[in-house]
Every structure is written in structure tokens, then in C-alpha cells.
Amino acid sequence: MSASLAAVLATILFLVLAGFQATLALGAPLGAHVLGGRNLGVLPPRQRIASGVAAGILVVMAVVILARAAELASPNSAAAGRTPPRPAGLRRSRQDSAAAGRTPPQPAGLRPSS
Fold first, then answer.
1. Residues 6 or more apart whose Cβ sits within 8 Å of residue 31
2. Burial (CB count <10 Å: 0-12, 13-18, 19+), residue 50
3. Which of 47, 89, 97, 114 is geometrically suited to a Cys-Cys bond with 104, CB 3.0 to 4.6 A?
4. Does the reported pTM lie above 0.90?
5. Maximum CA extent, the chain
6. What does the alpha-carbon distance between residue 8 and residue 21 come to, in Å, rounded to a whole number?
7. Domain residues of the chain, as ranges?
């Protein structure tokens, strides 16, 4: 299964769950189907608010999944075989310096005396 197909399926699942939570938050009489059937009919106000928050979180998660899938599938990403640019101020490793033909700086205590 490709990453983009998995992302689309996960997004659909999250949006279905978000829709169910939204219907609970809006007062649908589905209390018997959630929380072990403790509340028959419409959920109490505090639980309706919690369902609304959960619906919002699920929508955000669906958007993040699609965004990450698009980033990974982008031809300009690191996943496409390109190395991302090095952040400014990040020191080169010894291997990078050796490959470039330079000797890396030595700490003060390890420098050979002249």
C-alpha cells in the first residue's frame, strides 16, 4: 500500500469519526452508542462539549496526515533522495570536513604543541 493511499484512507476514517463526534455534540440521540451506553438519548452538556472538541481535534489530525503525505510525495522533499539544506550555524562533522579536504578544528586541549 502506498503512503498516499494510506494517508487518504486514514483521513477518511478520521473525518467519519469527526462527523460522528460532531453529531453527538449537536445533540443527536446516540448516547446509547457511546461511553458504554451510560447515557440514553442526548449526551449531557459537558460531554457534548467534549465531543465537539474531539471532532475538532480529529479534523486537525486529518489535515496533518494529508499535509505530511503531500510533503513526502513532493519531488522536492528529502524523501525523494535530495538532502535538505543544512541549518545556518550548524557545524560540519569530521566526515564532512574530511570529504571536503579540510581538517576540522581541534579543541584547545588536544592541539599539538609547536
1. 24, 37, 38, 39, 40, 41, 42, 43
2. middle
3. 97
4. no
5. 86
6. 20
7. 3-79
